Amino acid sequence: MKAKTKGKVNQTQAAIEAFLSNETPMRAQRRSYQPPLCAVLKGGAGATRPMPGMELEVLKAARDQLPFVSQNRLLEIVPRQEKRPDRPRRIGVVLSGGPAPGGHNVIAGIFAAAKRAHPEHRVIGFLGGPKSIITNKHLEITAEMVAHFKNSGGFHMLGTGRDKIDTPEKMEQCRQTCTALGLSGLVVVGGDDSNTNAAFLAENLRDIGTQVIGIPKTIDGDLQVPGLLQIPFGYHSACMAFATEVGNLNSDCKSDRKYWHFNRLMGRSASHIVLEVAFQTHPNVILIGEEIEEKELTIHNVVRLIADVVVERARMGKDYGTILIPEGILEFNQEINVLIIKISHIIAAYNREALEEESFHKLSFEDQVQFIDNNDIWRDYDSRVFLGLPPELQRGLLLPRDSHGNFQYALVNTERILLGMVATYLRKQRGKGIYKGTFRTQNHYYGYDGRGTFPTNFDCDYAYNLGHAAFSLLNAGATGYMAAIKELHKPMEDWQPIGIPLAPLMHLEERFGRLELVIQKQKVDLNSPAFKILAHEREKWAVEDHYRFPGPIQFHGPGADDKPITLMLNALGG
Amino acid sequence: MKAKTKGKVNQTQAAIEAFLSNETPMRAQRRSYQPPLCAVLKGGAGATRPMPGMELEVLKAARDQLPFVSQNRLLEIVPRQEKRPDRPRRIGVVLSGGPAPGGHNVIAGIFAAAKRAHPEHRVIGFLGGPKSIITNKHLEITAEMVAHFKNSGGFHMLGTGRDKIDTPEKMEQCRQTCTALGLSGLVVVGGDDSNTNAAFLAENLRDIGTQVIGIPKTIDGDLQVPGLLQIPFGYHSACMAFATEVGNLNSDCKSDRKYWHFNRLMGRSASHIVLEVAFQTHPNVILIGEEIEEKELTIHNVVRLIADVVVERARMGKDYGTILIPEGILEFNQEINVLIIKISHIIAAYNREALEEESFHKLSFEDQVQFIDNNDIWRDYDSRVFLGLPPELQRGLLLPRDSHGNFQYALVNTERILLGMVATYLRKQRGKGIYKGTFRTQNHYYGYDGRGTFPTNFDCDYAYNLGHAAFSLLNAGATGYMAAIKELHKPMEDWQPIGIPLAPLMHLEERFGRLELVIQKQKVDLNSPAFKILAHEREKWAVEDHYRFPGPIQFHGPGADDKPITLMLNALGG
Q1: What are the pLDDT digits (tens) for B96-109?
Q2: Active site residue A525
Q3: Complex ipTM, two decimals?
Q4: Which domains does chain A have, with CATH numbers?
Q5: Is residue A483 less than 8 Å (CB to CB) from chain B?
Q6: I want to staple B123 with a disulfide (CB 3.0 to 4.6 A). Which of A215, A509, B141, B250 is the partner?
């Protein structure tokens, strides 16, 4: 082969290999982004001082179970005047619960803050979630790892998990791990349950000198503290990923004028995601679980609410539209919730007295219904409600419970059931001559793809600053706190890092039949400016095609530094 | 109220209103993007000349039905030496079939080329697809409309539709519309069926002086002409939208290590989309319909193919992964296809002799099966295949046919059926001690959201140049051609606009029981460099986590000007 030909072959081969690499331009580009720090954190790890003007109440149960950390007072982080001499320390970090965009930046923030404070500080990553604190499965985080994962999505730098440290034995093993590793600090990145873990770890690791700080993470957006924590990290990116998809469906349905798109969005206990995606996309129908609960709407009311918009638009010749449904909509439905609780109770009672092979779910559907109907706690009213539901939902309500006896909401294909009920209702309206349109539908569920997206610039910056804030709190001797940033709606320069004591966030909640101390989830506040504005605007959005097309998340140019609209509206409107 | 306070209130009100506008930063940004032109088109509308070295054969049926346009020879567009004097002309444009990203740029291209050639040229947009040529529903396209919609997704500037101009009456009405509007040209933007429409329109509007040019559009990517048209516009953007989503799932599943994600991707007749998304994301299992067809794989083979990867990964402790499934997978399955054809035949025969209220689908499922089983064309082998399928698929195969008697693939939830079959197979493997993993799954269908996405820079440029090429062809007197761009893999400067005669693209296809002349869809070529490379790489992707994370479509920075990987590999390898 001639040298020239061979050179060309090699060149072609190299080009092909470049196309087969799993290095994307996006990853390379994102690695080069350096999230900036707010003014307070810019100069190095800050000091802490009590923050006046806000008294947080602590439940008696929290004072009893967390006698030490329940004494914590709200802290603000301020620039440190003189640099403190320090000894080399080791700080652990663990990712917990579902992945959320920005997790890697929390680690990058802790790492950068630690190395800046003392080049001999070391950061230890626990692998695969909290369980690995128990089993001591870890690795040391290096500058190379941080550079590789910075600003990227997912939690795969360390992995994650859902284990709770809920027994004295597990706690003892954690103590052993932290002692063995000589950890002076431990940062727990997670949602309400993980921050509950953090509080108990803080209480129990105090005497071995391991301080514990939580970081507020959850795409659901339900980890909030009024006046102190506007939103956790991860929420904005996931909402923007869903908004891209719903915005694209706006564009498609307005072009094709053929389909109603039912979009179920992740977020079981609160409808924050639906609220933000609604502001990002202006769909035709928006269901907010908290409103359904507050107004005690039945499922038939909800069906009617959707169908009325379909009928109204059909009159205008618009047989298309987009609808947002929160994943947890059934939980907000008083009537259905009562049925679920009663049926769970009846199934549990039956199974307690039956052999495994004769369990409730071995009965035929008809026999199951019969048995429920004969139970003392089942009223005529329950039967009327139950029999008024479509068969798919009836069967859904009878599905086997999970190992704790809980109803499995995720197994019920809510958007398809609602869609079926709307179709049935519309057939009746057609019979009466009220509806003359064509009702063709597509249903979608968006969740996991949003959890895995690259974080927006806002989440990159926010998570990175949270990592630095967590280090400041550790460095100042704090434990049993959640690192947070106040004033997120202001320019980043003016963000205010704080430490929120974990104990006052706790309330008592029934879990597996007993009251447990856990951090309270924050639902959509129907008196918030954002919700009130939505309630006003949605009537226009229902009939007009006021669609908003946010497009794919951008990292450069106009809009790249945008923040959640709900955050901004809540800060603006009073 | 003091002036200062009032000023602040107004300021707040203005800020809130800005957040509620449906103008997004993205739309504003995209409007400012001016797609460049290739060298040939830069200087104004080009001239045409026969392109040597390529002889295209024309079927006898095409010569018979399209006696005039079947004489067309392949044209290349070249810069025009001197500007031709011209009279003001009117050109119509119609969007046809499903929306594809870039459609608005075809219109922008035609408009810019026309106005540059003569400021009095006018562009007429037909509203809501080809039907509006019949009914003469149109508007005049203005510079403001073009500026508003340029580089945006969807087809909602004009709307779209699926009507065919397939009777002499409809054709006559089209002739009347074109005469009434005084159209000298008509551009049809669409897929195989729409370009078939274009050929017949060209043949029939010739004598009234309306030239007709088609534009290759379809996200499915199956409108290709080997050596001349590498890919239609819209394909790249839709693939990138799907790749964002699948890449995010890669990231999520690798973090959570908990789920197998089954992703069904739009694209019924060919698996081009799966091929491109596979190169963009490196998932663990990739099903290509054409390969299943070629290798005559049964559905059980396919299930085995998936399950083997699940088992292998479970051995490595990886109970997670991503799987790509082409929407039309059942069509590629020889065995299932035979059942579908026979069942359709049997149902049709039954219904011909039955009253409406006694139609086949009024029978119970068991009676339906019984009746099919007794039919002469149904062999024992068919029964064995049928009874070996899971009940959900059996019921799927018996679903009512559409108004033309065709099987409705879209009604069958293929990914869920496959997933169920894999789960069943894995249970057996577990019984034998071969499989010890946990098989938890999530299924996704991505289609409409990709159709509606903002077009990538590549599609913006491609569609805009196609619009200019169409105008050049009209300006040079051509009719019965599809505008195309050769050498798409080269720098845009070197793109080569051409006119492909429509007649040689036609073949005979059975539609509604009779042979019709239509443009042939192009399937994935198993001998193409891209497929061969995939076949080599996928073994590594199956077991290693070689995931690629393309991230959201970017319009600035590295990667923003990327082209489809399959296009590049096919051009490079060879």
Answers
A1: 999 999 999 999 99
A2: no
A3: 0.95
A4: 59-72+89-234+456-519 (3.40.50.450), 235-452+529-572 (3.40.50.460)
A5: no
A6: B141
